[in-house]
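We now fix the convention by which a protein and its fold are recorded. Think of the row as the fold of the chain written in a discrete alphabet. Here is one such record, which you should read through line by line.
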Amino acid sequence: DPESIQVDSSGSKVYLATSQATIVVVDISTNSVAETISLPVSTAKSNNLILSNDETHVYVGSSTSNLLYK
């Protein structure tokens, strides 16, 4: 189950933060995983996602490591 979900402004990509310290990027047009991003700390619980205004970065807040990943 996703911990957090963000959709880009065009509605073409969905970013899902998982409890396994990964971010899954789903391409809506193909309904498939476009990319899986592993967080640098394997024990991190990624519970907040925010896309930058220009949508070139995804910021991930972790409640277990008190870190912010970019």
Summary: The CA atoms of residues 26 and 33 lie 4 Å apart. The longest strand covers residues 32-38.
